[in-house]
Write a structure and sequence with these properties.
7 strands, 4 helices, Rossmann fold, single chain, two-stranded antiparallel sheet, globular, Sig_transdc_resp-reg_receiver
Length: about 120
């Protein structure tokens, strides 16, 4: 099984596409529709990369990103933020490695995921 990716995305269509596409590319994917589901999962397992939506029903990806980057267990892991409502990363107040506006090209997203997994490397 490949690298583990945690996706926090409340749009079921986007979640389904990302889950299917990334599994086909060999990743071990876990999708969470809410911040609370994500917080429960991170207690038991840590992924290799986070893919976070900005707008979520019970919080926002910016807060999640800041929490991930503040935790010594996850601070070194890459975070990619995505949003349909924010068009550039100057509005994203968190130390994410990358911001990708929606809609996005899946091949470009895959390229960026592989880039960040490669430079963060195994720990």
């Amino acid at each position: 099984m490949g690298n583990r990716i945690y996706i926090v995305e409340d749009d079921k269509d986007i979640s389904f596409i990302l889950d299917y596409f990334l599994r086909e590319e060999g990743f071990n994917v876990s999708v969470f529709g809410t911040v609370s589901d994500f917080k429960n999962a991170i207690k038991t397992a840590v992924p290799d990369l986070f893919l976070l939506d900005v707008m979520l029903p019970d919080g926002d990806g910016i807060t999640v990103c800041n929490q991930v980057k503040a935790d010594p267990k996850t601070s070194y892991l890459p975070v990619i933020m995505m949003s349909a409502h924010v068009m550039d990363d100057s509005k994203i107040d968190c130390p994410a490695e990358e911001f990708i506006p929606k809609p996005f090209d899946l091949d470009r997203l895959l390229m960026r995921i592989n880039y960040h997994l490669h430079i963060s490397g195994p720990h």
